[in-house]
Backbone:
């Protein structure tokens, strides 16, 4: 059969991995795809840089637009990430009659709807399994395997870098800063880790999953997003003592006809499978109205897990299955998208940690604020102050941890504003949600 | 669009669940499938029995062959299980131009190859996601999402009934017999639980997964299969003390170009996700040569998880995707199927428990047998005998637990035969493999 001719845009970490699978397992890929998968052309930044795969000079270019307009290319793999020029490259590829496989969550989250519309108008297909959760086939799970279900809840650890950092902090007893350095040394974190550690990357992926599962288009600006960059090792330890692990959790769930959405460091009971997902692994817990709970877990960062998903999409395109799936993607949600729950109306339990002055009436002052905002306290953890006080404060400063019963996010925010006025409270001040 | 007309063969537990999804979510199903899914005809055993869904008298028949030959039926759902008459019904359906969806692992394991060949000759499709692991989309994972990988290892808890029984024994501190009764009361186990507890059901499912992942056709008679029906609560407790959970584990893995296969109660380190899969849930741990490890978990027993998988297959057929997948199924393995590893050559660690006489030289006698068979002991656990002996034996009888280093199954069998001759050893006598 005719080969499927691939145009690679980007030969970095993921692109290099894709190249390796295409080169190393060419025979196997051809068998499974029903036709050979060949790299026709590849755009790179630097022609002189050593590469993981062998490509001839005529196959290489520094101009990605040369790849996406090349008449001999059937499918473009967009693996450079970011919005610009990725968006223009994908549009141009579609206009030139090419199908597109992308691992670009920022692009799909921000412009998926327009790009999908354009692709459909042009009779082309966009595949993006690799954009969410690396080696977990979560796009296929929602769009195909769970098609007989309405997803009612989706809770996910979908940033491998953050999960690695949190695991490292807790198990190796190191600070956030040291764990970030380790993640960078291992290639899990970028030199500027902001997109990961501030929660943006996970929130973008949640946006994509939400659109698929609930038909609601959202961008991270529309729901609470909090990163792990303000977390302290102490909080991981206090949470553990209370029976919880802390994970960067992306949540989308139906609550009384509305969609509750957030991406935040969250306390999860040790017994839950999500709490046991460590290192750079991802895990998604889906709840469907027929199937009940289902879990998907695999590596969420690193070269080969993502490359594996990209090549699976290419095989799907070669077989013709991806085209059928893509035509159906817009109907996974309900006809009328589910409206978003107001952030203030989200009802959960919360974990609070303050540093407070160790003197009479402090707990009473704090508890008074909570009480007036209808926040009921479930437990209090106060450690004795060290006998030797070196802080120079008139009273020693001690950490105080509260766990609340279920309460509204709006009440928590209002209480937080009042607590900030109290003289007895010092930084750091941590307020984290608790998953059910 | 034209509706997809369904012929249901079997309206028992799974059939009833399928009927409920088709009836209750007709609008949603039509949206996702691109056409209405309607029940055209259904074969039941007893026309007078109350049913979960409403069907008119003209839709019902007691003759399943009436369903599979009905010209107005497009797709037959075979949900009666067993080999006879299921095989004949599926063949007849194919011959009458119908696609088939089945949840019948016994049928696919025993006759999948012939049925698939017949279907291909007739241009028809057989879907069987529901035959393995209930709500886990493991067939789709191997055949599609992991298509860019060679699976190198597959370890699976794929019998929800056994997993429920083992969980119940360990966590509720009850005997095997009592746990079976509870499983029956909850509808997880049949009145004759033999197929589940003897390991046959899990072994059949392993046979199906093995054919998909490695291209090797196997039936349970060709590899070691051991059930949970000889397990004692004591072994679950000793294993726990040593750091392991005991699970009915189905394993298929590539070892030096050969395929190691077995389905046995197996010790798994507490830290492994498989060890933490409890109750009637299933979990499959796949290792691909690109993606690394991936886990899939969902309910493995019960009505709705299986029904969810059946309806997902029907939607896949309605979209036309299942037809494309089915054409490719025979190439998932290598061209030349991987040969089976001889059972005697399988190399693992083992757990032994004997009841032995509490007198001098017993451990030496046992250790001598192990030593002569080149079996190296990793640890020994012996509890003190009770002060009061009521056994009537000349010496009190005490349990003795050994953990070995890696050794050959053949050596273990030879040692077992010699140990049986020793006067100091009493029943029960337990020998279980340990997963790496």
Residues:
């Amino acid at each position: 059969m005719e080969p499927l001719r691939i145009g690679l845009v980007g030969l970095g970490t993921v692109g290099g991995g894709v190249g390796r699978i295409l080169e190393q397992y060419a025979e196997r890929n051809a068998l499974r795809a029903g036709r050979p998968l060949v790299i026709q052309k590849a755009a790179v930044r630097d022609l002189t840089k050593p590469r993981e795969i062998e490509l001839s000079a005529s196959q290489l270019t520094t101009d990605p637009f040369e790849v996406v307009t090349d008449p001999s290319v059937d499918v473009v793999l967009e693996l450079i990430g970011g919005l610009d020029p990725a968006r223009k490259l994908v549009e141009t590829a579609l206009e030139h009659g090419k199908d597109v496989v992308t691992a670009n969550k920022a692009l799909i989250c921000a412009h998926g709807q327009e790009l999908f519309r354009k692709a459909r108008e042009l009779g082309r297909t966009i595949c993006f399994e690799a954009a969410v959760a690396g080696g977990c086939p979560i796009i296929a799970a929602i769009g195909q395997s769970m098609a007989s279900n309405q997803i009612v809840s989706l809770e996910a650890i979908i940033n491998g870098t953050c999960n690695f950092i949190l695991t490292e902090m807790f198990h190796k007893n190191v600070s956030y800063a040291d764990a970030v350095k380790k993640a960078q040394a291992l290639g899990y974190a970028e030199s500027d880790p902001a997109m990961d550690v501030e929660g943006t990357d996970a929130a973008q992926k949640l946006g994509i999953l939400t659109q698929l599962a609930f038909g609601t288009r959202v961008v991270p600006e529309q729901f609470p997003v909090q990163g792990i960059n303000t977390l302290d090792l102490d909080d991981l330890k206090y949470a553990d003592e209370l029976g919880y692990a802390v994970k960067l959790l992306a949540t989308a769930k139906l609550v009384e006809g509305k969609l509750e959405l957030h991406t935040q460091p969250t306390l999860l009971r040790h017994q839950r499978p999500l709490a046991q997902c460590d290192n750079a692994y991802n895990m998604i817990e889906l709840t469907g109205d027929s199937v009940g709970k289902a879990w998907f877990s695999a590596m969420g960062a690193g070269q080969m897990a993502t490359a594996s998903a990209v090549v699976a999409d290419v095989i799907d395109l070669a077989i013709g299955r991806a085209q059928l799936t893509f035509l159906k993607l817009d109907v996974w949600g309900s006809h009328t998208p589910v409206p978003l729950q107001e952030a203030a109306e989200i009802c959960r339990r919360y974990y609070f940690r303050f540093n407070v002055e160790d003197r009479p009436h402090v707990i009473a002052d704090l508890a008074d604020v909570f009480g007036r905002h209808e926040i009921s306290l479930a437990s209090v953890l106060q450690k004795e102050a060290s006998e030797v006080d070196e802080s120079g404060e008139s009273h020693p400063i001690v950490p105080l941890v509260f766990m609340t019963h279920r309460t509204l996010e709006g009440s928590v925010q209002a209480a937080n504003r009042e607590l900030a006025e109290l003289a007895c409270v010092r930084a750091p001040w941590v307020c984290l949600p608790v998953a059910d």
User: Anything to note?
Assistant: The mean pLDDT of chain B is 93. Residues 138-299 of chain B form a domain with the Dihydrodipicolinate Reductase; domain 2 fold (CATH 3.30.360.10).
